[in-house]
Write a structure and sequence with these properties.
Strand content: 5-15%
Helix content: 25-40%
Largest sheet: 11 strands, mixed
Oligomer: single chain
CATH topology of the largest domain: Rossmann fold
Shape: globular
Length: 563
């Protein structure tokens, strides 16, 4: 089994000295360094200056540490630059601002609602939890989800204290979101030495990993034993980090919860059914009444964020040939990904809380069967056997789930196996009364409080998890598996079932009332979705993953090597 030392030789293969050129140091006018006089909390010295945290029950917390200079105003839509040094000891007892994002209404239907603190472009910060006496400990880096549009590493759901008590340093990062983090534009590409634009939020994540490589030893962490972890858009980010040349050598293991390997727009060309990223940036600028990037940089960041959302700007990671060289399946097919152990999985009820992804309106049985046959051709019989017309709603929920999350999970494992890196797969199928009563059994993100041990610290609209011995036991097991994997590259927990790595027999861990092993989860579902995606990729003019079931375009012709 591959441990951290061998991970370094494969996943980091000679790339440790590589450094991303992040451009000149840029301090925005009028931004205070927020340094303070020394406080009574624990102090650590970073490359930019000293920070003072807060000691809490065997764990010291350092909140809101800037890992890069915030590109604001006239520097907006530029790569992050090194943080300017400050004098004295910086107060790190409070989280920094969250990155600009839409403020959705606080309604009971929005279970993901969080009370947002102040928002700012000056948001490139991370927080660290370290156990007392830390010395050369493994590092767990959390990248939050939220469709690349919302979220923050500061939410109570992601509190790293319990993971840190497992013997790790835990870091959670913020990165630019929405149009401010991912808009491409021809003028921005012309400014870039590499001729590219967009992907600024991904560059932020890389900058945070480089900061960790330089600074985590001062907190008692081991820069040669770093696991990156994320859920949903955080897991999408990790797949892109695994294939991004500038990120190689910055991590040794990867955890991806509810990852989705969707097609992504290309920078300058319309491909796979996506308009070019630059054309979408031009469209947004025109809708905002901006004749140039200078006009956009003079506008309010909050106004850009608010209006971009209402104008229908879609936030994507862009295939630019530099940071993201290829579509994700192609990168993995080429064996161009980081050859590191992975832990990946999805939830049985992913789409129960994401019903906006379902086709609407739902068809009747006869129309359902007719449309499936029209859209899936010679694969229709197999499709209807897996997703029958007798239970249309459940078939739709499962089809979208499998197309997005299930197919991605197994494909990741198979891709890593092909380059000699082990993978561990799971299905989260746990329910409890408050969630099940709302029809949200094992919904998207439901595993998060169990992984972090924060089942009593979820958001205000999150279905309340009962504080019982059984719920705590499941959380302890999951937290233990995740921590073990982050530390050693193998998920092992005393008193819990041994978790075999992925092999042709396809063993998975299922987290239901308790952990247990099954030999197969997807079966023919994977084969079906792989065949569909393969044909769509070969056609070159169709998106994949999102458009399934009665929303699918007609299946392209069979080509080699697609079946």
């Amino acid at each position: 089994m591959q441990g951290s030392s061998s991970n370094r030789s494969t996943g980091r293969g000679g790339a440790c000295g590589r450094r991303l050129r992040l451009g000149r140091v840029a301090a925005a006018a009028g931004l205070a360094l927020a340094s303070t006089a020394a406080t009574a909390g624990p102090v650590v010295t970073t490359t930019a200056g000293a920070v003072s945290g807060e000691a809490l029950d065997g764990v010291s917390v350092y909140r809101g540490i800037p890992y890069a200079e915030a590109p604001v105003g006239e520097l907006r839509w530029k790569p992050p630059a090194a943080k300017a040094a400050w004098e004295g000891v910086r107060d790190a007892t409070r989280f920094g601002p969250v990155c600009h994002q839409p403020e959705f209404p606080n309604v009971p239907a929005n279970i993901y609602f969080e009370h947002l603190p102040a928002m700012s472009e000056d948001c490139l910060s991370l927080s660290i939890w370290k156990p007392d006496g830390a010395e050369r400990l493994p590092v767990f880096v959390w990248i939050h989800g939220g469709s690349l549009l919302t979220g923050a590493g500061t939410f109570p759901l992601y509190d790293g204290a319990r993971l840190a008590r497992q013997g790790m340093i835990v870091a959670a990062i913020n990165y630019r979101l929405g149009a401010l983090g991912f808009m491409a534009h021809p003028e921005l590409s012309a400014e870039s030495p590499d001729g590219v634009s967009g992907n600024y939020g991904l560059l932020d994540q890389i900058a945070a990993l480089r900061w960790i490589e330089r600074n985590i030893a001062a907190f008692g962490g081991d820069p040669d034993n770093v696991a990156i972890a994320g859920e949903s858009a955080g897991a999408l980010s990790i797949m892109n980090l695994m294939t991004a040349p500038p990120a190689q050598g910055l991590f040794d293991k990867a955890i991806m919860q509810s990852a989705y390997m969707v097609s992504q727009p290309h920078l300058k060309e319309m491909r796979h059914g996506h308009p070019s990223a630059e054309s979408e940036g031009l469209r947004l600028a025109e809708a905002l009444g901006a004749g140039s990037i200078a006009d956009l940089r003079a506008a309010s960041a909050a106004e850009i964020t608010k209006r971009a959302t209402t104008l229908g700007f879609r936030t994507w990671i862009t295939v630019d040939g530099k940071i993201v060289p290829y579509q994700l399946p192609e990168s993995f097919d080429r064996g161009a990904q980081a050859r590191v152990p992975i832990l990946a999985g999805f939830n049985s009820g992913e789409i129960r809380s994401l019903r906006m992804l379902l086709p609407a309106p739902q068809p009747g049985k006869e129309r359902y069967e007719r449309e499936i046959r029209e859209r899936y051709g010679e694969l229709a019989d197999l499709y209807l056997r897996i997703y029958p017309a007798d239970t249309i709603e459940e078939s739709l929920l499962q089809a979208v789930r499998d197309g997005l999350y299930g197919w991605t999970t197994q494909r990741l494992a198979m891709s890593q196996a092909s380059v000699g890196a082990p993978a561990w797969l799971y299905l989260f199928d746990h329910g409890y009364r408050a969630a099940d009563r709302l029809g949200l059994h094992a919904f998207h993100g439901a595993e998060l409080p169990y992984v972090f041990g924060t089942i009593g610290e979820t958001g205000p609209n999150w279905p309340r998890i009962p504080d019982t011995r059984e719920e705590r036991a499941l959380s302890d097991a999951m937290l233990g598996y995740w921590a073990s994997f982050a530390k050693s590259g193998r998920p092992v927990v005393d008193g819990a079932p041994p978790w075999p790595h992925y092999s042709p027999k396809e063993p998975w861990m299922i987290f239901a009332e308790r952990p247990r092993i099954v030999n197969d989860v997807l079966g023919l579902r994977y084969e079906l979705n792989e065949a569909v995606v393969c044909r769509r990729r070969a056609a070159g003019d169709l998106q994949w993953n999102w458009n399934v079931s009665v929303a699918a375009p007609p299946l392209p012709p069979k080509v080699e090597p697609c079946r």
